[in-house]
Design brief:
266 residues; mainly alpha; Herpes Virus-1; 4% strand
Length: 266
């Protein structure tokens, strides 16, 4: 027997089925040509899978017991290999930009408190860098920042209006006062962004709810007199005019506002 014959014999023996001896390359040592070989193959496969599942279960249990230790070791490794970690993140992002963006967006939406806390810590730890970045944006993108500020102001006003509408709905259920859904933007457009007490313009750029020229909503007929939250009973008004009106009727409040404006004009 030559060396090549020995080599061939070893190869054939190592790849033969352990049941029928048929030469066949198989991961579990059995071919799948006969029913018996198929049964043994499936049995061996199940045994290997059980072993794998046991290893996974053990690994999960070990991780739960040693989670702090593993996280500390991982943190130390990342700090010691920051360049490699950043390079790996850049490679993964470049390979799957859409999926990574979707993942991060979903995570931020699911964890708003963690996002706010992380942003707060970041600003506290890098105050000067953030100030310089804000100054740079103000110099380079004033129009964009002004548009974002307007959006934030309108969002804040919309939230306050929705909160007031919700409170009015609950009061209506208890007291029986009329209530209907009112669209904020349509109401402002109907009144032409003008205070319906002093007839002066309402500045949409004022975000504070306590500013005298800020936006507020007045009841033509007060709730105490039976007026509800309805399209015809709501009107746009300055915050200061609304407070000044108090329990006056609408005509009395308008007359008082005219007197004040006349005095200021003198």
């Amino acid at each position: 027997m030559t060396a090549s014959d020995v080599k061939i014999l070893i190869v054939e023996t190592s790849t033969a089925c352990r049941n029928c001896g048929t030469p066949a390359k198989s991961k579990y040592g059995y071919c799948q040509r006969s029913p018996e070989c198929k049964r043994l193959y499936a049995k061996e496969q199940a045994r290997e899978l059980r072993k794998t599942e046991k290893r996974r279960t053990y690994a999960r249990e070990w991780y739960l017991v040693n989670r702090d230790r593993v996280q500390e070791q991982s943190k130390k490794w990342r700090e010691a290999n920051r360049d490699a970690v950043n390079a790996g993140q850049r490679r993964r992002y470049a390979a799957n930009p859409d999926s990574r963006r979707d993942y991060h967006r979903a995570w931020r939406e699911a964890n708003p408190e963690k996002v706010r806390e992380a942003n707060r810590r970041n600003r506290e730890n890098h105050k000067e860098a953030h100030r310089e970045y804000d100054r740079k944006r103000q110099r380079e993108q004033p129009e964009k920042l002004a548009a974002l500020a307007r959006i934030r102001r309108l969002r804040s006003i919309s939230q306050r209006f929705a909160s007031s509408a919700s409170a009015a709905s609950k009061r209506s259920a208890k007291t029986g006062l009329p209530y209907e859904r009112v669209d904020l933007e349509a109401l402002c457009e109907r009144d032409g962004w003008t205070c319906q007490i002093c007839f002066g313009p309402v500045d949409r750029a004022i975000m504070s709810r306590y500013h005298p020229y800020g936006m507020s909503f007045d009841h033509v007929i007060p709730e105490i007199a039976g007026g509800g939250w309805t399209w015809g009973n709501l009107q746009l008004a300055h915050r200061g005019c609304n407070v000044m009106r108090g329990d006056l009727s609408l005509e009395e409040a308008r007359g008082f506002a005219r007197e004040i404006l006349a005095r200021l004009a003198q």
